[in-house]
Amino acid sequence: MSEFITIGEPLTLFGAEGESETDKEIKDINHFEKFLAGAEVNVCVGVSRLGHSVEYITKLGEDPFGDFIKESLDRENIGTSYISSTGDYFTGYQLKSKVSTGDPKIFYFRRNSAASHFTVDDLQKLDLEDVKHIHLSGIFPALSKTSRDAFYKLIELAEEKNIRTTFDPNLRPQLWSSKEEMVNTINDIAFRSDIVMPGINEGLILMGSDDPEKIADFYLNKGVKLVIVKLGAKGAFVKSKERMYTVPGFKVEKVVDTVGAGDGFAVGVITGLLEGLDLKDAVRRGNAIGAMAVMSPGDNDGYPTREKLEKFLKGEA
Ligand code: KDG
């Protein structure tokens, strides 16, 4: 079985393709390129590319997007034993614009999607015997009541079996019925995770400050063991009872698309921990993969193989 597992909603991504589509509103874009996406899928792709065994839990629709996702997961060597399917609901997809600066616009077609009909029953076969790390993201519990129940069941199992968890809040306000529900649920999940990895802006929404140390203290005071605050191009701020430091980011020549950088960061931290790296080196790897991610158009197409990662870390790429 696998050393790493996560649960999420995979999406087919249609990203604006070509220079002529830059800075257009989504409604005006004519040419799109198809990619595999979804925050948790992205993490699976990155962890698998670095040679770790990975299982991904979700529900797909019996439709062309579901087939595309299944084939893409197979190609990336991502285990699909815990993927259920339904003929009653469609697999979600999204459109993404292309911008010369800043973050692109995203439009989701995912309401009432197959993944939002995932239930606790879909976890019945789950075997966590060999799993060393579970990655949690705040998107899946936002999809529906049943997906949230299943997500909490996975947290309970991780706690019972003492499996290390990372949590990326991945705030998606459009998926929640209110800001209050989002903040309360996301913080509740964070308090039950071992390692919490918010971005600065997420910290501001979740606890009212954009000071990295205050964000870290907020979660450490609730019993979280380690907080890593993502600082974008500046790198990441790390704090636990024993340590406090900032790991600087990498220089990026040209930003092509910012989406997927946070998931790439998670890939670096998770694989670093799985390989027993010193925490600083694991976070440095996270910064490196985050930087590599923003230099390509899809969410996860910039994530490296081991060889590419080594070259990048040595400054050769
Ligand atoms: O982190 C990347 C994700 O934002 C993207 O792949 C789509 O999963 C997605 C989401 O819910 O926003």
TrEMBL record:
Molecular function GO terms recorded: 2-dehydro-3-deoxygluconokinase activity; ATP binding
Lineage: superkingdom: Bacteria
EC annotation from Swiss-Prot or TrEMBL: 2.7.1.45
Keyword ATP-binding in annotation: yes
Keyword entries, A-Z: ATP-binding, Kinase, Nucleotide-binding, Transferase
A Pfam family matched in the record: PfkB
Annotated Carbohydrate kinase PfkB domain residues: 23-305
Family: Belongs to the carbohydrate kinase PfkB family.
Protein name listed in UniProt: 2-dehydro-3-deoxygluconokinase
